[in-house]
Amino acid sequence: MKKTLFAAALAAIAATGAAAAPEKYVLDSGHSQVIFDYNHLGYSTTYGMFSGFEGEIMFDQEDPAASSVSVSMPLSSMLTGWQKRFDHFMSKDFFDATEDETITFTSTSIEVTGENTAKITGDLTLNGVTKSVVLDAKLNKAGEHPMAKKPWAGFDATTTLVRSEYNLGQFAPFVSDEVNVKISIEAMKAEE
Asked: Count of alpha carbons within 13 Å of 84, Cβ hemisphere only?
C-alpha cells in the first residue's frame, strides 16, 4: 500500500514539475451561447441570445490561471425573438449599429477559486466602450469528445452588466439597467 501511495505521489510531482504549455482550443460555434435577460417595466423578464460566434481559449489544465480566452461576436447576430425588438436595439435609442459592429471579450487574468471554478477578469468592448468585467466561471467537463474523438472542454459563466455604463441606458430604471448574462460554451482542441 505504501509503495502505491509513494508511486502516486511521485507521479503527481512529476506532472506538476513538467510545465505544460497552454493548448489552443477553438469554440464550437454550434454549442456556444450567450443568453441575456433584463426586467421589462416590472411586468416580465425579456431574453435574448447570441450564438454562432467565434473565439479561442489557451487552455492549461495543469495551471488554469495560466489560461486565457478571447471571443468576438457580431452584434447583428443577436437573437431577440421579435424583429421589432431587434430593430429597436439597432436604432439610435440603443446601439445605432453598423452592420459590422462586434462585441469582444479578452481575458486579462484568471483567479482559480475552487476545483472547477474561477473568476475570469477581462476587457469587454460593447457599443464602443471597453470596461473590465468579471465572469464567475465553471469548468463543466474536459476530456475526449465521444463522437469527435478529440480533446474537448465545456464551460459555464455568469456576470451582470450595467447597460448605462456602455451608453445603452435608455428607459432605465423602468427597463432594468442591470442585464444578467449567462454563458455556456464548448471548445475543441485546435488542429495543429
From this structure: 0
